[in-house]
């Protein structure tokens, strides 16, 4: 039984991290892209959401709606193609923390999952299948 478990562990350890990084990037892309597209499809409704439901304490609702939508559309695209991936992940971490602590504090299971993926991307990078790997090849 020990040999079987050791063999299984070795096979799992051999799974390419770059494939996992690509899967993480693809997964988190859809979460934020879908939300951004819903807002972009009807910015009047998005502004109303920021005014009446989200009620962020610092930014005016129209500025927050356009800024939030821009981040939800741009950062996931950068993450998906793996360009300036860590910076994009950092911006989505900030957005997720804002949502968690200022808007939907009861939805922590979803936000914790998003944060786990984003922190993985932030700390491990985009992997070999990314524009960052092509552009910054050989740099660490």
Cα distance spanning the termini = 41 Å
- Could you say which overall geometry the principal axes of the C-alpha atoms support? elongated
- Percent helix among the residues? over 70%
* Radius of gyration, CA atoms, in whole angstroms: 18 Å
Question: What's the β-strand tally?
Answer: 0
Average pLDDT, rounded to a whole number, is: 95
Described by its quaternary structure, the protein is: single chain
**Proportion of β residues?**
under 5%
Low-pLDDT segments, ≥5 res: none
Structural class: mainly alpha
Describe the protein in words:
With about 140 residues, this protein is mainly α. It is about 80% helix and about 0% strand. The protein is built from 7 helices and no strands. The chain has helices spanning about 1-15, 15-40, 45-55, 60-80, 85-105, 110-125, 130-135. Helix 4 (about 60-80) packs antiparallel against helix 5 (about 85-105). It is elongated. The model has no long low-confidence stretch (mean pLDDT about 95).
Can you describe this structure in just a few lines?
With 140 residues, the chain is mostly helical.
Structural descriptors:
140 residues, elongated, mainly alpha, 7 helices, 0% strand, single chain
In terms of topology, how is this protein built?
Layout: H1 2-13, H2 17-41, H3 43-54, H4 61-81, H5 85-103, H6 108-124, H7 131-135
Helix pairs in contact: 2-4, 2-6, 3-4, 4-5, 5-6
